[in-house]
Amino acid sequence: MNSGKFKNSLKYFLPSSYQLKLSVTNIFTRTLFILLVYLSYFLILSQIPEQMSYHLELALLLTSAFALILYLPIIERLTRYIRTRFLSEYLTEDAESYRQAIKRFNFDALIKNVFPDMVKITGSHSGTMAVLTQNGTFAFHSYFRGRQKKLSPTKDIIVKTSFQSFLLTKRNGASVAETYSHENINNDFMELHANYIYPFIFREKLFGFIAVSNIPNAEAANSLSLLAGQSALTIHNHILSYHISENKKYQKEAEYAVRVQNLLETGTIPELLGWKITAFKRTNRNLIEFFQVEDGSWFFVILNAGKSYQHIGIILSYILGVVYSQSRLRILKGFSDIKSLIQSTFQKLDWKENYELIIGKIGHSELYIVQEGKQFRITRNAEEVVASMGWKNMINMDKGPIIIQQRGEPLLKFNFEEPEIK
């Protein structure tokens, strides 16, 4: 009994939140750096004869050289090791470190590094993560006090449809206390040994979830939301990459297209003050995505591959998934970044066919559009062409709605009415 009280008291005084642990890490490494510099200074000073001219200045110069060439790289390496070991490198406040970490945020990193980080962030001693597979089932991974393993399929853990629907309504996570009035859902929590579950949701689809033994505080829950969002995008892109690799030789195109059809819907259209945006029926040759960039501006991309193969939709969805994930990380800044990212992604896929695109920005009461490709037409009043290829076109909306067409078929319609000031 006394031992339990002592552990609880000790846990109370130890840092538990991510920010506090980060502060302790910074204080420790910087204090260590200062101590090393001071000790080196006095050690070097003791070895220089006092009769020598400028012996203080010489000691200071040599100490500075040691600090910059030797101590600083060691301290930086030690800091990275401590943060990776005890914190999450994906939640660092340093922009450059964050960018490097995100570049390594792939499917393997999700399983090996991010999953344990998420369990640690909540202060839990155990956790279970479910990941959607390319076959539509879920693979389960467990973590218990530093030990991690993939659960055998013979465990027969099934994610029921009712449980998936429940998680889709709990985008910000759910505790076991919220399930007392739902016996079946409560039983699912008990089977997972979970007191708290956070879902991985992207485009209104469940790509997985993490179940932990401890209910996190508000700060830990916010950290979970950041990692969960990126995890959903990572799983989404992993599934699409699998189908793309399976379709390298254009075999079984229809079968694989059906498997990922629900991933290929037009992105959610934003509701912006004064704007009414309408999406028309699309074909598998083109795909549309809306997203925000670093300064909060809304952009949209329309991609057209010009071919009617079933696998084209899979490839376009993968490319726009990459664009969307980069925009969520606030890495994209404008037209040139978006265009360069799309071009580089096509190159990585070894794409030899022609493709066309439109990149647009939604302003206060105007559209900015860059068009590449002859199949697109941007018109007003059915006849007036309001955009030229290869140029950044600014289109004022005060003369009527704008329709973007592809081979005479409408794709998007933009209408703007100045909101009334009440």
From TrEMBL:
It comes from the Bacteria. Keywords: Membrane, Transmembrane, Transmembrane helix. It comes from Leptospira brenneri. The chain crosses the membrane at residues 27-48, 54-75. This is GAF domain-containing protein.
